[in-house]
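Notes taken during the Thursday session

The instructor put the following on the board and asked us to keep it in front of us for the whole hour. The protein is Family 43 glycosylhydrolase. We were told not to look anything up and to reason only from what is written here. First, the residues (584 in total):
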Amino acid sequence: MKTTYLTWIFAICLAFTGRDISAQNTYCNPMNLDYGFTPIPNFSEAGRHRATADPVISYFKNKYYLFSTNQWGYWWSKDMLNWNFVSRRFLQPYHKVYDELCAPATFVMGDSLYVIGSTYAKDFTLWSSHSPETDTWKESVHAFKAGAWDPAFFLDDDGRLYLYHGSSNFYPMYGQEIDRKTLQPIGERMDLIRLNDELHGWERFGEYQDNTFLKPFMEGAWMNKYKGKYYLQYGAPGTEFSAYGDGVYISDKPMGPFTYQSHNPFSFKPGGFTRGAGHGATFEGQFGNWWHVSTITIAVKNSFERRLGLWPSAFDQDGVLYTETAYGDYPYRMPKSKFDKPVDLFTGWMLLNYNKPVNVSSSLAGYGANYAVDEQMKTYWSAKSSKKGEFIQSDLGEVSTVKAIQINYADQDVDSSFLGKIPGIYHQYQVFGSKDGKSWQLIIDKSKNKKDVPHDYVELAKPVEVRYIKLVNVHMAAGKFAISGLRVFGKGHGELAREVKDFVVLRGEHDKRSAWLKWRHDPLATGYVIYSGIAPDKLYTSIQVFGANEYYFKSMDKDKTYYFQIEAFNENGIGKRGVILKSE
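Then, after some discussion, the predicted C-alpha cells were revealed:
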C-alpha cells in the first residue's frame, strides 16, 4: 500500500512539472537571477531592459549573500544554485539619486554582515545585519565619511579594517584605513595603483582594445589575503567591452607597495555567449573553495546593459591567482567538497545546436530566428507577440544525448513602466523533444512556474535522446517572446574534432602587446579554444572562437614571453590539444 501511494504521488509530480523535478547539481552562466530593470529612464530610451553589474558575494554564517548594482534588494543562497531575493532599499529618503546601492561593498566583522553603496558624497549609511536572509538591517554609521566610489572593505587577520576604492580613467585606486570602533576613516587616503596600458595590452580601452577615443578606466576594487600575501584587484578597461576583465597586484602589506602579478588579467572572457569577466569579487566559500563573481556585458540597449557570471578560481602552487573561464558558459558542476583544480568542475557537456537550423512560429522584423543559436547574447530572435503558443524549434542535426537546456530571454518591447525591480512577474514555458520532428515528448514543464527566470537553466533528471528541441511560450514576464540563446547541452554521437594543424602566433615587432593567431580550419570543428599564459604550466587565459580560423589577441604585456595552445571542439566533445608555442 505504501509503495503504491508513493508511486501515485510521484506520477502526479511528474505530470505537474514534467521531467524537471530532480535536485540540480550543475549551473550555467549567466547566473539565473530575477534581475531588475534599469531604474534610470535615460538609460533605457532604446527599450526597457534588465541590468545589473559590479557584484560582490560574501559567505556569512554558511550562506552566500549576493549584492549588485541597482537591484532594490539582494539575494542569498545556501548552495549558489538556488537564490532567494530580499527586497530592500538602502538609501535614505534625502538621497535624490537613481542609483540604489550602486557597486556595493560588503564585509563580515564579528557576527554581522555590513553593506554600503558607492557615493562621492559623505552621507551614505553603512548598514549591518546579524541575519540578512531577512530584511533585518540597522544603521551602524548614519553618515560614512569616506566618500568612496566602487568601494571594497578588507578586514585583516590582526583586526584592522581597510577601504579600497576608485573609478576613473585619470585618478588612481585609493586605500585608507577605517577605525573599527567608529567605522570612520583614519587619516588621509593613499594612492595605490594605476593603469599602465602602454605596457599591459589588456588595459587598452575599446571593444578592440585600440584606445581610439578615451583612456581606459580602472574601477571595481577588491582585496583578498592568501598565505600572507595581499591581492588588490581591479577592473579594466571599460564595462561595455567583451575584454572587460579583472587584474591583480600583490603586496606583503595591505597598503602596499604593490607589484603587478605576472599573470593578468586573472579573470577574462572575451569570447563565447557570455563575454566580459570584470569588476567582480573573489571569495572563499563552502569547503574552502575559491570563486570569482563578475560582470558580463551585453551593451545593446545601453552601454550598461549587463549580467552576472560565477567562475571557479584558485591560487596555484606559486601563489598566482587565476579564474577558470574556458567553456565558462557551458554547464559546470557545483562542488560538494573541496575541488583540486577549477577545471575539474567542467561537466564536458557540449553545446549541441550552434548555428543549426531553426523553425519559429513568427519573427519580428530585424530579429531573425538564427539569432537565438548564434552564441551571441547581444543578438536575439523575437516572435511578433508574447502570446501563448509562440515557439522556437531547434534542429540538433542528429539524435543526440541532451542533458541540460538553458533558455535566455531577451527584452523586446517591454512596458515603459518597467523601471527598477518589478515584483510578481514570471515566465512560463514548455520544452518538447523529438527524434523525428513528428512525435514529441514533454521534457520540461514550467507551465505553472511563478518565478522570474530570465536565464533559466534546467539540468534534466534523466538525459533524453532527441534530434529536435521545441520551446513553447506559455507566459512572458515582460515584452514579446524573445530569446537571445536557446542553448542545448549534452553529447553528440559523432566523431571528435581533430588536433588543430598549422597553428601560428604572429607577434609583431611594432607592438608586442598584440599578436595575430592563425590556424587551419577543421571541418569537424564547431569552434576553438585558445589557451595562453606566462608559462607552459600556467595557460590560465582562454578565448573561445566560433566561425573563424584566426584571432587578434591584444591582451599581452609588452615585456613578457607568452605560451599558446589550441584545441578544437564540437558537439561530441573536445579534440586533442596541439603543441605549446612560445612567443617572445
